[in-house]
Protein: Protein Atg16l2
Amino acid sequence: MAGPSTPIVPDAPVAPWKRHIVLQLRQRDRTQKALFLELMPAYNRLLEKAELLAQFSEKLQPEPSDVTPTTHQGWGKEESQALNQTKFPSPATLRVKCRRRKEGLLVCGEMAYQVVEKSAALGTLGSELEQRQSRLAALEASAAQLKEARAQLAEQVEAWQTLNAAQLAAYDQLRAHAGLQEAALRRLEEEARDLLEKLVQRKARAAAERNLRNERRERAKQAQVSQELKKAAKRTVSISENPDTLGDGVRERAETLALPPEPESQEREACEKWKRSFRSASATSLTLSRCVDVVKGLLDFKKRRGHSVGGAPEQRYQSIPVCVAARLPTRAQDVLDAHLSEVNAVCFGPNSSLLATGGADRLIRLWNVVGGRLEANQTLEGAGGSITSVDFDPSGSQVLAATYNRAAQLWKVGETQSKETLSGHTDKVTAAKFKLTRHHAVTGSRDRTVKEWDLGRAYCSRTINVLSYCHDVVCGDHIIISGHNDQKIRFWDSRGPHCTQVIPVQGRVTSLSLSHDQLHLLSCSRDDTLKVIDLRVSNIRQVFRADGFKCGSDWTKAVFSPDRSYALAGSWDGALYIWNVDTGKLESSLRGPHCAAVNAVAWCYSGSHVVSVDQGRKVVLWH
Structure:
């Protein structure tokens, strides 16, 4: 602690509290020094007097040998002692008085020491009092400020209460208005539902009427052909060597024979031919060749009728180029937040440079794959609900999507608005795929139906009733395969009304993928396995499992690679798993940008890129 003699550097900055302490110490030193300056001389004087008294008492004390008691003549002994005590006090008395004075001096010293201590304590209490008074003043100033702040806050509270009351009144009004709007919305939804049902009924009636007219037209055409064949069979024709001399009857018969006859008329004509008289070789050979052509035309006609209502030959898409060897993806090249909410579906176009993604935000986005990056191409709007499935037709000119709005919608690439709406399901549509024949598609729904659609006429040509929810469908040449919630895969012949085969699997079927050669089927199910089914023997060939692989939802999609060498699927933890179909072993697992469950994956037809989408709005391009 610094005292009065501690040097202070003038240029050094001194804190206010240090200066205050130094002043207090100096004041205490001065006070105590003043007290001791008065007390010490008095104490010294008392000690000197005590020493003098002690010396004086020692000198006054008589020695025993020298001192003889003398008495005045005529006085008594007692009178002489009293006189001696009055004139000269005895040494004992002087010692007592000296002792008393010493004790008094000691008491005075102790009291002086106590006075000094009390003075020091008084000084300390004075400094504490000053500190407390300064602190009290600061607290009073702070209390005044807090009172002012409290008054301001009280005013703000009153203002907020007034505003809250006004907003509460406005909220009540808005709530009442919202109730009215909700009631109006419910009425409009009911009206829309009624209108949709009426529209579906009208479409169904129109389709039935159109089918009836087509059947009547076909029957009339067949009847006319049958009558003309009967007339031509009864007519006798002479054929000369000169083709220019052929009569009109021969030409008429030749034109008539170009039409396909019925089997009964053909058999009757063949029987009558052997009953006729012998003709020339040229006539006979002509008749036989034309009969062969008629039979071929009849068979082709019946075959075409088995596939099409109108009897016209089916128009098939051009075949997609087959990938010779697919490349295994190893790293993520591009990551995008493609949609406003989770992404449910993804599909590559046949040229491998166009990609479509669909999500719960009711949008379909088209992307160009350029230089290992995804560039936005177009946004298709108009979907009535969340997108659950996306598919390109084999020509790459149309996009078909399944929605939660109980319908499938068709877009033309290059147009933003929907071209056609396929309505007729009574629950969510979970899958929509193009068939290999032009203007035909298949949809599956949670209403336990699978429907075939004629896209050219925009009506349902066939409805297949199933016992369970349909999660996915794929289409072959003449077969439709559907995966269901009751852990079964069903096969349907496009030319027949009934189910041809059922293959049970362990777990709800979430997706199906058909190989390019249509000989193998890949299924993904909720038992966290992938199964490869050999369609030639209708048996499960392989089962794929992996530690950590789990299906994240009922719509998790798994696919074959274009060359059918690998099977690809996404897991609930955001990882991609790739199995080798030939060996049955896990080839690799990819982890990276996905932080949520992977909903769907797609492998481009060239085999060079893979795209995965997840529930966290991400689209990832792998190379």
